[in-house]
Design goal:
By secondary structure, this protein is an all-alpha fold. It is built from ten helices and two strands, in the order H-E-E-H-H-H-H-H-H-H-H-H. Strands 1-2 form a two-stranded antiparallel sheet. Helix 5 (about 95-130) runs antiparallel to helix 10 and helix 6 (about 135-160) packs across helix 7. The chain is elongated.
Length: about 240
């Protein structure tokens, strides 16, 4: 509350949850029949629940992740740069407990705000397009959340490694850019965690199979665990 992380992320995720179905509903009405000149007229089809969930994955996978990254970039870096952990460590607090506490607190906030965004989006989508059928909903909705957990683990590791806000931020963006570049290769896409952020829409409507994303899920979970272990190892040797 004091750092406004909870307030900011909650506001952003609620806004995204409202925007997703509204954009899907209103965009055809706003752009429908617009004459671009030369006989070119925009004629968009009637929106469906699929359009709302498309907006969900697009907005949460981009703006939602950006808000998450910026919000938690200083979760470890600020502590190290300001020296606020010295008193706790000198009184006997184990360093691994600090890492785990930071990861847990960030995960709780991210999980709560993500579920809030999902609930708001679902309620509005059901209101505009009732009784829309969803397949593989659990995996489809867990995947972006898991990618967010991976971002938190990277931010903590980057913060411990570099000890600065910008170091943690650049670490996270650097990993995202690397994942985006290697995602160009079709043979790697099923193993790439970045596909969990916005590439699982097909699961909801049976256009993709769960086994297409299971490798990326396993790699993401393993990466989170390894990053937390690495953060503890680096922090144990770091002078505070």
């Amino acid at each position: 509350m004091r750092t406004y992380r909870l307030i900011v992320l909650t506001a952003v995720m609620i806004l995204l949850g409202i925007m997703n179905p509204l954009i899907a509903k209103l965009l055809p009405e706003i752009l429908g029949g617009v004459d671009l000149g030369g006989g070119i007229v925009i004629d968009l089809p009637e929106p469906t629940a699929l359009d709302s969930w498309t907006q969900f994955y697009s907005n949460v996978g981009q703006m939602g992740m950006l808000a998450l990254i910026i919000t938690f970039s200083g979760i470890m870096a600020n502590e190290l740069s300001r020296g606020t952990l010295v008193n706790l460590l000198t009184k006997g607090l184990k360093r691994y407990k600090i890492i785990l506490a930071k990861f847990l607190s960030a995960s709780v906030i991210w999980t709560g705000t993500y579920l809030l965004c999902l609930l708001v989006c679902y309620m509005y989508t059901e209101y505009f397009w009732p009784s829309s059928e969803l397949s593989n909903a659990f995996l489809a909705f867990v995947s972006p959340w898991l990618f967010g957990e991976l971002m938190i683990a990277i931010l903590i590791f980057g913060g411990v490694l570099f000890g600065t806000f910008y170091g943690a931020l650049l670490s996270c963006f650097g990993v995202i850019m690397a994942l985006a570049i290697i995602n160009i290769a079709p043979s790697i896409q099923k193993y790439n965690p970045i596909g969990l952020a916005g590439g699982v829409l097909g699961l909801l409507y049976g256009q993709s199979e769960p086994q297409d994303f299971i490798p990326a899920v396993i790699i993401s979970i393993a990466a989170v665990v390894l990053l937390i272990i690495a953060s503890v190892a680096v922090f144990n040797k770091k002078k505070v």
